[in-house]
């Protein structure tokens, strides 16, 4: 059975959060989204989440104050919920080194350029790692 999926949008730019949430909805994704303004907010949310069944899709910016995307990825390593966290890096960084660095983290399933689009949201939804989470939830 496919468990529940929560989506965390993690970015310090409120306009990007708004755009990304809008594109997810326009892509037909009906999941509730949680907005986090840095990695620390996202980490606190994961740490305090009561369900042991819920999976998380984290759309994660890299450059943020307080705790950046890399620090967030390091912080969740070894946590009991790690295998239930699927991360898509969403960044304006175009350096090949950043994309390559993302592959060092097993929970990173994709790397997308900012801002997301309907096409990139569709790519995320159709990701092999997320198959089954959206089958009955997409409003087309």
TrEMBL record:
Modified positions (4-aspartylphosphate) in chain numbering: 61
Gene3D superfamilies: 3.40.50.2300
GO biological process entries: phosphorelay signal transduction system
Keywords linked to the UniProt accession: Phosphoprotein
Entries under InterPro entries matching the protein: CheY-like_superfamily, Sig_transdc_resp-reg_receiver, TCS_response_regulator
Superkingdom of this protein's organism: Bacteria
Keyword Phosphoprotein: yes
Domain (Response regulatory) ranges: 6-129
PROSITE patterns: RESPONSE_REGULATORY
SMART domains per record: REC
Coiled coil: none
Classification via PANTHER family: RESPONSE REGULATOR RCP1, RESPONSE REGULATOR RCP1-RELATED
Protein name: Response regulator
Source organism (scientific name): Dyadobacter chenhuakuii
């Amino acid at each position: 059975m496919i468990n529940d999926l929560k989506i965390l949008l993690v970015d310090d730019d409120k306009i990007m959060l708004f755009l990304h949430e809008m594109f997810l909805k326009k892509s037909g994704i009906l999941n509730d989204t949680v907005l986090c303004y840095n990695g620390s907010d996202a980490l606190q949310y994961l740490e305090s989440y009561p369900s042991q069944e819920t999976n998380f899709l984290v759309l994660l910016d890299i450059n943020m104050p307080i705790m950046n995307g890399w620090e967030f990825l390091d912080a969740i390593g070894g946590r009991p919920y790690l295998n239930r966290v699927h991360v898509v890096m969403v960044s304006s960084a175009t350096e090949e080194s950043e994309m390559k660095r993302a592959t060092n983290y097993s929970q990173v399933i994709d790397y997308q350029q900012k801002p997301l689009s309907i096409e990139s949201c569709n790519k995320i939804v159709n990701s092999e790692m997320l198959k089954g989470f959206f089958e009955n939830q997409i409003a087309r």
